[in-house]
Amino acid sequence: MKNTLLFLIAISLISCGTSKTVRTSKKVIKGNWVLNSITYSEKGTYNVNLLNDDSKDCFEGSLWQFVPNNNTGTYNISNVGCSSGARNFVFTIQEIDSQTGLYDFLLKPTNEKYKSDTNQGFRLNLTALSDVAMEWEQTVRVDGKPFTITMNFNKQ
């Protein structure tokens, strides 16, 4: 009976904690990144406003910093002709499928611009993560069809 009780306590503690895969991902994501390129699943010219903030041209080359111990970060846009400056956010990584390596990544801006809508956040798929590169995908609908935006980062 005593062994059964200890086993159940151990299982409940393990199930309540963050998975090892997510903890490892947070260690890898920590630090400074550059958003190098943004591509679309369909050919053509699109006027996409990423994260309800700015255009693709403004986001490419932006600098990102992730601080996983408190799930916060910033991204800084500095391209000419763009709304430059640092933007703050909080983020969450949730494991979807450990076999495929796909994660649900929730990014929630916290700047003054978003204070009126405290529930605004953006759900992305963290499709690739290594010590030097990271890839996010967001699928939206355009004319009733899926349209995927892919964002590629390199670690500084």
Describe what you observe in this structure.
The protein is of the alpha+beta class and 156 residues long. It has a single domain, classed as Lipocalin (Beta Barrel), CATH 2.40.128.280. Helices cover 19% and strands 48% of the residues. The chain contains 3 helices and 10 strands. The protein has helices spanning 2-16, 20-29, 56-59, and strands at 31-40, 49-50, 54-55, 63-67, 72-77, 85-97, 102-109, 122-129, 133-142, 145-155. It has an 8-stranded antiparallel beta barrel with strand order 1-4-5-6-7-8-9-10. A two-stranded antiparallel ribbon has the order 2-3. A hairpin with a 7-residue loop joins strand 5 (72-77) and strand 6 (85-97). The longest helix is centred in the N-terminal third of the chain and has 15 residues, at 2-16. The radius of gyration is 18 Å and the shape is globular. The protein starts with a helix and ends with a strand.
Task: Tag the structure with descriptive keywords.
Lipocalin family protein; eight-stranded antiparallel beta barrel; two-stranded antiparallel ribbon; Lipocalin; 3 helices; alpha+beta; 48% strand; disordered N terminus; single chain; 156 residues
Tell me the count of domains.
1
Q: Unreliable stretches, pLDDT < 50, 5 or more residues?
A: 2-22
- Based on secondary structure, the structural category is alpha+beta
Measured as a percent range, the helix fraction is 10-25%
Shape: globular
Note the total helix count.
3
- The average pLDDT score comes to 81
Provide the CATH topology: Lipocalin
Just give the CATH class: Mainly Beta
Protein name: Lipocalin family protein
Organism: Flavivirga spongiicola
